[in-house]
Amino acid sequence: MARHSTRFFWLFNTIGWLGFAVVSFVSLNLWYNQPEVEYVAHNILQSFLGMLVCWPMRPILRSIWDTHLVMRLVLTVVVVLLLSLIWAALRLVLFLLLTDETGLWADFGGWYFPSIFIFFCWTALYYVVKFYQLFEEEHQRLLRVESEQRESALLLVQAESQARDAQLKMLRYQINPHFLFNTLNAVNSLIAAGQPDRASEMVLQLSRFLRYSLENDPAQQITVGQEAGMLALYLAIEKVRFAERLTVTVAIDDDVAECAIPSLILQPLVENSIKYAVAASADGGQIAIAARRDGEQLVISIGDSGSDASASGDAKGTGTGLRNITERLATLYAEHAQLEVGLSPLGGREVLVRLPLVNQEGLADGQ
Predict the structure, then answer these.
(1) Is the pTM of this model over 0.70?
(2) Considering the domain 195-356, what is its CATH architecture?
């Protein structure tokens, strides 16, 4: 960086003094009709002397750069006046040596004041370039800081996403073994009861359900209609188990069938209803599944005719399934989703799941 800056300085310094030589040639040699060799030589040599005299200005100005502004200005003026005086004297002496003219020291001010102007212009250009370089360095620094912040934010988002996926998978895998345990117990009971055909049908339905479950990411958004299709696979298993004791009604409004919900979010609710309403009753029971729109929310209800008509309002105290759903909703939607437990019109418990109304692509409905 320092080497590049030094080359940059000497390049522009040389170009500047060559430009001064050209301007002097046009404005003095040609304008005053002095094309003689000695006058042209003086013009060239005074530019060379100027470049040599201003050489120490750069380290001097760099050394006073960090001083107080007023002190910096005072020192800059002193340096310019001193070096301008030296250059004016040198070029006047050179002019007297190269030409036959005499008695010019009385007009030294005419040589000195233009020298001051030229050296002040040189200093002003130096400061302009210096400030520009500092601005570029600060700009590059800010860009690096911004890039590092974006990279850190991206890593944080990736870490949060990985943690979120891990949590969702953990909750998902808590559900599957529980359901699998119940189903295998039911298969074992059917075999023991001498009903191999029903046991075989249940195993077949179980394999279809597990294949669907494993092929769907727990963080994936699917439509209400697709979730209803998954529930149909699950209920087909339970139908084999309970036969006529299980009655299910499904009512999904057309305007919410394509709305997005988390995969396998409803199966634990239906499983709870079967456990408390169907399995616990000698006559079986009913389950009602419904999905509708309520303003900007999607409302899904799972109600049953369970033997326990007293509904708890605390979702966390109703088992692993509801607790997992509550945690999944909090992970996916924060405070924008709720799970409510109350009384069902069928006489048992009803669970309401309220989600933001979004379409299949995950965009806000109506956008």
Answers:
(1) no
(2) 2-Layer Sandwich (3.30)
